[in-house]
Amino acid sequence: MTGLIGLLAFIAIALIAWGIAEAKYKNITYEHSEAEKEEAALLEEERKEHGDKEMNIRDVIKNISCKGYKAV
């Protein structure tokens, strides 16, 4: 019987915490900063540069700024 009471208490606490988290989530608004907007625009330009295609590992290695041991 004690285990059942503990389980019910755990479920009640979990539901209360879930309700509080949902209430906080609905009240918080998120807006991107200017730096994030600029970075998103830069990434969009870079994506268009490569023709909107997903690069494989060989393309990624060609475009990265470091070349493994040669960079050291």
Description:
This protein has helices at 2-27, 34-49, 57-63. It is mostly helical and 72 residues long.
Write a concise synopsis of the structure shown.
Helix content is 68%, strand content 0%.
SSE map:
Elements: H1 2-27, H2 34-49, H3 57-63
Give structural attributes.
72 residues, mainly alpha
In which range does the helix fraction lie? 55-70%
Low-confidence stretches: none
Instruction: Tell me, briefly, the overall form.
Output: elongated
DSSP helix count? 3
